[in-house]
User: Fold this.
Amino acid sequence: MESICKQAAELYGIPIETLCNIGRLPECCDLDPFQWTENGIPQVLVAMGIIGLVTFISLLLIESRSYFMSKVNLTRSLKYLPPLSEDGQIDDDVQAEKNKVAQMTENEIPTHNLVMRDVTKYYGGFLAVNQLSVMIDKGECFGLLGVNGAGKTSTFKMLTGDETISHGNIWVKGCNTVADKFTVYEMIGYCPQFDGLLEDLTGNETLKIFSLLRGVPSYMISSLVQRIAKDLAFDKHLNKVAKDYSGGNRRKLSTAVAILGNPHVIYLDEPTTGIDPASRRKLWDLVCHIRDIGKAIVLTSHSMEECEALCTRIAIMVNGEFKCLGSTQHLKNKFAQGISLTIKLETLPVMNGFQSGHSRAPSTALNSPGFQLNEYGLSVQQFINDHFQGATLKDCHRNYLTFEIPINVMPYSRIFGLLEANKSALHIEDYSLSQSTLEQIFLNFAQKQRSEEENKVLRKRKKEKKPTVTRW
Ligand SMILES: Nc1ncnc2c1ncn2[C@@H]1O[C@H](COP(=O)(O)OP(=O)(O)OP(=O)(O)O)[C@@H](O)[C@H]1O
Assistant:
């Protein structure tokens, strides 16, 4: 009967239920929806039940397997480690930190909030992170700097357990991120580079859910959410759904999620990207406060100003390796090649419709590779070359000339005296003398970073030659 009803429904181009309603085939009205037939409800209910059960068991197996596997894989190890440095140059601070971490005993590891020992990441045969070792104490903000593709996000992903570690170990308060994964999750907060937000929840709901997940007592949640949103300047948007948030407010919400629930270690992957300057200052204040109350923070940022403001120590990463490590002042003292002298020249008068400026051009004058200077620029350069031995013209942009002067060429007072005495004769409008900035140091290291195209070629070449991985 059922098949006849079906054929008739197809013939008329209407659903079976409608057939009986219009009185064409009253027999079709007798079809019981609870019969064990193709169109009956029981078959659908059973199918849904089976699918639910199978997927639930699969999920249980996957979770418990990763749990048991993690208990077994205490140490992941590569049989053949890559050379410590691609260019053979290992900074002494990086080596000293490596030695300290290598010599740490099992009792010493839990005394630090975060310890990374020889952390290495291979994607297939491509080496993205090479044997990083560092220990981070409470009250420290550790800055990871590097150009795009240096390996910062891969390092973060291993720290948070999003990516497997090809070699090495990470401990948070003495708990291994592989063996004690679930304990570690309770102790870390993470603001990913791209927001891991639930798009249909409001900011308020998001923060409440994460507070509950992090074990914040329910009577404290409302006031905590309000306070954190106020501190990060997005309290006005708490009732908007996440998908309607602006880019900057999304970063603030992600940062708020990372710091909820008092974690011991907080990972912030470019937290201030797209945030307005006023809110950025508020976020900095909050990060400083969290750092000062004894949390460990690992931060990446493309803003040198931010790193100088927040980080107690900085490491610059190039091609997956630490190239230097230390406080900002230490790096400046160690790597600054000279004093930076920036001179603003008066504008050259317009003559015969031509106005001379400075521009980049094939090498012209002594010590000014690639810059073409106007009359004022040339006389200033001559003056600098005559008085400051070894000075180099580093940059030339419109009326601004930047020279690098060797550090101990003469006392600062004499440099100021010379420039003051010759200011008007050299048509100098303004000048400033400063120590090399962190940005200049960063740019010097960044030159050694491979481009993504070079990395692609390397990946292709190494695809066939995978490293041997053994697990103990
Ligand atoms: N899943 C992956 N598979 C293969 N290669 C990857 C993968 N993830 C990253 N890489 C490569 O590893 C290298 C390091 O990437 P990573 O994202 O860690 O760099 P990054 O320093 O965080 O860059 P950015 O500042 O752009 O975020 C890059 O060459 C990248 O192409």
Q: What stands out?
A: The pocket of adenosine-5'-triphosphate is lined by residues 123, 126, 128, 146, 148-154, 193, 455 (CB under 6 Å). The chain has a mean pLDDT of 82.
